[in-house]
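Model it.
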Amino acid sequence: ALATSPFLFGLEQLDVRGCALEDEGASILANSMDLANVTHLRLDENGIQDAGALALAESPYGFNLVSLHLQDNPITPRGAKALRESPYLRRLKDLRLPSSALEDSR
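Modeled.
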């Protein structure tokens, strides 16, 4: 429902912490053209795993993201690496991940 909401268009900041989006919701959001306007995205505490992180990393609509918060999600180093190396997230300056995603992710 969020990704198809007419209110998403034009938003620059989106905070959906603790909404149980999980991988499916992260993927739907990542594939929404309306994400292109968002510069600050908070997805903490949503049960997002590597599949959701990969969807965000592979989204051509995330190119304006400057800040992406994914704390308190079960993301592993694999998901963290995909986000850090994403060709679409070049403007990202503030990437916040759970500590479990940072172990051996270099």
